[in-house]
Amino acid sequence: MADPPHSNLAGPLRALSDDELLGRLSDVLRQARRVEAEVVAHVGEVDARRLYAREATPSMFAYCTDVLQMSEHEAYLRITVARAARERPVLLIMLREGRLHLSAIAKLSPHLTDDNHLSVLARASGRSKREIQELVAELEPRPDAPPTVRKLPERRAANPPPTTVAAPAQGNGIELGQPPAPAASVPECVARPATVEPLSPARYRVQFTASVAFREKIERLQELMRASVPDGDLARLLEQAVTEKLARLEAKRFGASRSGPARHSRVEAPPLQRYIPAAVRRAVYDRDRGRCRFVDDEGRRCRSRTRLEFHHVHPFARGGRGSLENIRLMCRAHNSLAAERDYGAGHMARVRRTASGEGLVSRPPP
Ligand SMILES: [Zn+2]
What we know:
With 366 residues, this protein is of the alpha+beta class. It has helices at 18-49, 60-67, 72-87, 90-96, 102-108, 117-124, 129-139, 212-224, 234-254, 278-287, 332-343, 345-356; strands at 149-151, 174-176, 195-200, 203-210, 308-312, 327-331. The longest helix has 32 residues, at 18-49.
């Protein structure tokens, strides 16, 4: 591979073919992982020798943020991983090989023991953040969080912090779920980001900040659903409400209703979609388990469950029919990709231009 360009990093990349570009990206990423492992090893050694004290900083964390200009999050992850790796050097090898990322190691390391670390690390290799959280919940199951609705303190209007303009809800927000551990440094009055956190296998804590209006709707729902949820349990209440909404949306979009005749929708049909009978839509949705069917050259299946469309395996324009065998669920990105392969990229760009009323081709590169 050629040396990376030093000036105008993106310029020369535009001349690469798609395959070259993807190849380069994975090469560069491999290099970055090697370098990251080196950085972490150095952090660990400097930390062990307490060299930060020479630089007039009181801790390794302060040295990383103040002198080395790392973000607080980067500093936290690298120091945590460096300390864990001094005890278990295999962590650095997995980091360098891209089998575990920094966040995964930081999450797992408190739960590693001499007995379990080899099997746990083997299971964690190559997993997503969410899968790692589930693994941690399995290693150290926590009890269910009790349902709570808790009023957050009012923000003092006189002296609002300057950085909270984009915060989703402020002041009289209401938090649903279990309050986090007191160690959390988020100011009380700032709405926390919504979280779904595994507690133990198959149990999750869901936490978010709601408006006053939503709070009132929940109370009305609790009253109306006394018959099926006598204790007004938040989790059961919301699960029933979400289940009902889901069934309605799926029926509308995919004909996936099990009760009564499914309606077919014109509203939701994307521009490239042809009429497909409701029974077929329902069967396709069930067969594909509500998930994109695209599989890449290495056999990996797309994870998308959103923006799903019905794709004709044998193209509609060439006589492909709306039958169960010929229709697959695909996310919008993969349906477009498939259409480009079927009809050619130029044709699809014209179709999209017509559909959206703007010229995608003439749009300046981002
Ligand atoms: Zn997809």
